[in-house]
Design brief:
4 helices; single chain; alpha+beta; Immunoglobulin-like; 261 residues; 14 strands
Length: 261
């Protein structure tokens, strides 16, 4: 009978030794249960990383001042973290809900267009593209993009945490004529560009041709010592240099024409 009591006491002591650390932790720390609309966001107790939202609850030190979430989505790297003060005492178990707002990045081609949010009959100006707009959730809303000389564009607002819109605006018919640039003028400009490019290419080929010939004759001169070959080498080098100059002038002309368009 005495042995049985000793065995029972030993079992109880073992059980207590197993659960004692958990009991001690529960008494000295705070258990935090976290919910968010981004379950893969990173959780921080002040600056200490705890894990992902889906891994909660977490034990945190009672000296913790804030619980912070930071998104790990690659496309949403510019989203700032969100946080909330932790108000609890050792031994408490608290539930925290931290939801990210919806971010809408609106880009247009060309940029600098006006971005508007259409909500029923009301329109709200958001800024000039590219622009980022935040909300607590948009349903049945539309973004309108407008730029003088272009047909307006529109896109329906999505409901993800990070939303990215790219809108290409189409020029209005007759835009070139209104700006003083006719179709015929554009065609002439294109022919000039193509002609300049062709001259630059041909000049480059000629420069390489003469340079190779000059190098071959110069190698012959070095092997034979025939002084009569030197003038020919200089002449071919001159031809190559002139062709190279024509090629460079053509490339510079093309660069300037593209830059001022």
């Amino acid at each position: 009978m005495l042995n049985e009591r000793h065995q029972l006491a030993g079992i109880c002591f073992g059980v207590l030794s197993i659960f004692a650390p958990s009991i001690s932790m529960a008494q000295s720390q705070i258990l935090v249960q976290i919910r968010s609309n981004d379950m893969d966001a990173a959780v921080y107790a002040d600056s200490s990383y705890l894990g992902l939202v889906r891994g909660s609850p977490y034990w945190v030190d009672p000296a913790t001042r804030t619980i912070r979430l930071s998104t790990l989505r690659p496309a949403a790297w510019s989203m700032p973290p969100i946080q909330v003060p932790l108000r609890a005492v050792p031994g408490d178990s608290v539930r925290i809900t931290l939801n990210f707002p919806n971010y809408h990045r609106i880009e247009s081609y060309p940029f600098g267009a006006e971005a508007w949010l259409q909500e029923g009959a009301e329109r709200r100006f958001l800024g000039l593209t590219p622009v980022v707009f935040t909300s607590s959730g948009l349903r049945n809303r539309t973004f309108h993009i407008e730029l003088d000389g272009y047909a307006p564009g529109a896109v329906k607002a999505e409901t993800e945490i990070w939303n990215h819109y790219e809108i290409s605006l189409e020029p209005l018919a007759g835009l070139n004529e209104l700006s003083g640039i006719s179709t015929a003028m554009k065609e002439r400009r294109n022919w000039i560009d193509w002609g300049t490019a062709a001259v630059a290419v041909v000049a480059g080929v000629v420069a390489v041709h003469y340079k190779f010939r000059a190098d071959r004759i110069n190698d012959e001169y070095l092997m034979t010592g025939d002084a009569s070959l030197r003038p020919r080498v200089a002449e071919l080098d001159n031809y190559s240099g002139v062709a190279l100059g024509v090629m460079q002038a053509g490339l510079v002309t093309l660069a300037v024409r593209f830059a001022i368009r």
